[in-house]
Amino acid sequence: MTTDPSTETELARIRRLVVESAEGGLTEATLAAAGDSLQAVNYSSLSYIRMIDAIENDFGVYLDPEADIASFATVDGIAGLVAAQLADTRG
What CATH number corresponds to the domain at position 65? Predict the structure, then answer.
Protein backbone atom coordinates (compact mmCIF):
# COMPACT_ATOMS: atom_id res chain seq x y z
CA MET A 1 0.00 0.00 0.00
CA THR A 2 1.47 3.34 -1.04
CA THR A 3 0.49 6.39 0.94
CA ASP A 4 0.80 9.98 -0.21
CA PRO A 5 3.85 11.22 1.77
CA SER A 6 2.36 14.72 2.04
CA THR A 7 -0.45 13.38 4.25
CA GLU A 8 1.83 11.58 6.72
CA THR A 9 3.90 12.93 9.59
CA GLU A 10 7.65 12.40 9.32
CA LEU A 11 7.49 9.71 12.04
CA ALA A 12 4.67 7.87 10.25
CA ARG A 13 6.59 8.03 6.97
CA ILE A 14 9.68 6.59 8.61
CA ARG A 15 7.68 3.82 10.31
CA ARG A 16 6.09 2.94 6.96
CA LEU A 17 9.49 2.83 5.23
CA VAL A 18 10.91 0.64 8.01
CA VAL A 19 8.05 -1.84 7.55
CA GLU A 20 8.25 -1.75 3.74
CA SER A 21 12.01 -2.40 3.87
CA ALA A 22 11.66 -5.51 6.01
CA GLU A 23 11.88 -8.89 4.38
CA GLY A 24 8.17 -9.52 4.93
CA GLY A 25 6.10 -10.46 7.92
CA LEU A 26 6.56 -7.11 9.68
CA THR A 27 3.58 -4.88 10.20
CA GLU A 28 3.29 -1.44 11.76
CA ALA A 29 1.29 -3.04 14.59
CA THR A 30 4.05 -5.57 15.28
CA LEU A 31 6.67 -2.83 15.22
CA ALA A 32 4.62 -0.65 17.58
CA ALA A 33 4.07 -3.59 19.95
CA ALA A 34 7.86 -4.02 20.09
CA GLY A 35 8.26 -0.40 21.17
CA ASP A 36 9.45 0.54 17.67
CA SER A 37 12.66 -1.42 18.36
CA LEU A 38 14.14 -2.86 15.20
CA GLN A 39 16.23 -5.34 17.17
CA ALA A 40 13.13 -6.63 18.96
CA VAL A 41 11.54 -7.52 15.61
CA ASN A 42 14.75 -9.17 14.33
CA TYR A 43 15.31 -6.58 11.62
CA SER A 44 18.00 -7.95 9.30
CA SER A 45 21.11 -6.19 8.05
CA LEU A 46 19.73 -6.29 4.50
CA SER A 47 16.53 -4.66 5.74
CA TYR A 48 18.62 -1.89 7.36
CA ILE A 49 20.34 -1.22 4.04
CA ARG A 50 17.00 -1.09 2.20
CA MET A 51 15.51 1.13 4.90
CA ILE A 52 18.39 3.62 4.88
CA ASP A 53 18.21 3.84 1.10
CA ALA A 54 14.43 4.30 1.16
CA ILE A 55 14.60 7.04 3.82
CA GLU A 56 17.39 8.86 2.00
CA ASN A 57 15.39 8.80 -1.24
CA ASP A 58 12.09 9.75 0.40
CA PHE A 59 13.43 12.61 2.54
CA GLY A 60 16.43 13.73 0.45
CA VAL A 61 18.88 13.27 3.34
CA TYR A 62 22.08 11.31 3.90
CA LEU A 63 22.20 8.89 6.83
CA ASP A 64 25.54 7.45 7.92
CA PRO A 65 24.82 4.21 9.79
CA GLU A 66 28.31 4.22 11.30
CA ALA A 67 28.07 7.74 12.71
CA ASP A 68 25.48 7.03 15.40
CA ILE A 69 24.73 3.31 15.49
CA ALA A 70 22.52 3.57 18.58
CA SER A 71 20.12 5.92 16.77
CA PHE A 72 19.33 3.22 14.23
CA ALA A 73 17.94 0.92 16.94
CA THR A 74 14.47 2.49 17.05
CA VAL A 75 12.07 4.36 14.81
CA ASP A 76 12.32 7.37 17.14
CA GLY A 77 16.12 7.33 16.88
CA ILE A 78 15.97 7.22 13.11
CA ALA A 79 13.38 10.03 13.11
CA GLY A 80 15.79 12.10 15.20
CA LEU A 81 18.56 11.59 12.65
CA VAL A 82 16.24 12.55 9.81
CA ALA A 83 15.01 15.63 11.68
CA ALA A 84 18.59 16.75 12.33
CA GLN A 85 19.48 16.30 8.64
CA LEU A 86 16.38 18.20 7.55
CA ALA A 87 17.14 21.02 9.98
CA ASP A 88 20.67 21.29 8.54
CA THR A 89 19.38 21.47 4.98
CA ARG A 90 16.64 23.96 5.80
CA GLY A 91 19.16 26.17 7.53
Answer: 1.10.1200
Beta-strand ranges (E) seen in the chain are: none
The three-class DSSP label of residue 2 is: coil
Instruction: Give, in order, the Cα–Cα distances in Å from 8 to each of 45, 68, 84.
Output: 26, 26, 18
Q: Which residues contact 52 (CB under 8 A, 6 or more apart)?
A: 63, 65
Residues of the domain holding 70: 5-90
**pLDDT > 90: percent of the chain:** 73
Q: What is the pLDDT of residue 91?
A: 60
The arithmetic mean of pLDDT across residues 38-43, rounded, is 95
Q: Which among 36, 32, 61, 63 has a CA at the least distance from the CA of 49?
A: 63
**Closest Cα to residue 28, out of 8, 46, 45?**
8
Does the pLDDT value for residue 1 go beyond 50? Answer: no
